[in-house]
Amino acid sequence: MWISCDRLALTVLLFALPFVWWHEPEVHGAPMRENSAMIPAGTVIPIRLDKPISVKDAKRGQAIEAKIAQAVPLPDGEKIPFRATIKGSILSVETDTDGSGMKVTLKFDQLEDHKEAVPIVTYLRAIASRRAVQTAQLAHSGADIGTPNGWADTVQIGGDVRFGNGGAVRNRAKEQVGKGVAGGVLVHVSANPALGCDGPIESDDLQALWVFSSDACGVYDLKGIKIVHTGKSLPVSEITLHFEKDDAKLEAGTGMLLRIASKP
After folding, report:
1. Which residue, among 203, 201, 261, has the nearest Cα to 235 in the 3D structure?
2. What's 146's DSSP letter?
3. Residue 174 backbone zone (phi > 0: left; psi -120 to 50: alpha; other: beta)
4. Are 101 and 245 spatial neighbours (Cβ–Cβ below 8 Å)?
5. How many domains does the structure of the chain reveal?
6. Would you state the pLDDT for residue 130?
7. pLDDT beyond 70 at 103
């Protein structure tokens, strides 16, 4: 008896484990803005590292690269497309005078899509391990077997709960801060004074925070790594991370929230 490909695919889906990977749909919207001045200050840019950054192998001038992890909405219906490339470089690598660790300073200063390069000035809001990113995409307990990708309830990095595509996103106080969409979330950015992160800048539009909570700020699940300088203040855009061990690294798949810096 012949079984159609469609029926076979459906059977596999129905018996799949409730493990949710979000895949941003390939939607071709309006093109990216032509210059960084048109990307509003305070715009959050979620990225995922393409390749690992090894502390012991890091060198000044080394190129680094990441991909946009969720399409970023811009004014007038434009967007920074999913999987657009963010490029940067390592500015310096320093060993602590007491030998207790190493500092790596880097910056992300170029956005590319379809061979169009746009200079940007960014700073770091949050960073999370590959494991934390993966965990944030796992179906929360109680999901039914066969729940389609993106529709299961998940817990964002930082504690917000995402109630599937089209559902509410609620913070730890159970307040609605946004909604789940294909590939992530659109939420109102919240301040996190305890960790030093701002809320809305210039406007309180919904922003793409991917797997992160509305108030996500700082370091998540990266033992022995600290943010020494976010790049928000002088020297602007220079992000310095401290690593306790010289054999540490940021794995491919590490997630970050960058933010467009305000004009000096």
Report:
1. 261
2. T
3. left
4. yes
5. 1
6. 97
7. yes
Rounded CA separation 158/99 (Å): 32
Is 6 inside any structural domain? no
Is residue 125 one of the residues assigned to a domain? yes
Q: What is the pLDDT of residues 216-261, one digit of tens each?
A: 999 999 999 999 999 999 999 999 999 999 899 999 999 999 999 9
Grouping H, G, I as helix, E, B as strand and the rest as coil, residue 91 is strand
SS percent in the chain: helix, strand, coil, step 5? 10, 40, 55
What pTM was estimated for this model as a whole?
0.85
Q: For residue 258, count CB atoms less than 10 angstroms from its CB and return exposed for 0-12, middle for 13-18, buried for 19 or more.
A: buried
How far is residue 264's CA from residue 250's CA, in Å, rounded to a whole number?
30
The DSSP result for 6-45, as a single string, is HHHHHHHHHTS-S-----------BPPPSSGGGS-TT-EE
For residue 201, give its domain range. 44-260
Q: What is the SS3 assignment for 90? A: strand
211 inside domain: yes
In a domain, 60, yes or no: yes
DSSP, collapsed to helix, strand or coil, labels residue 226 as strand
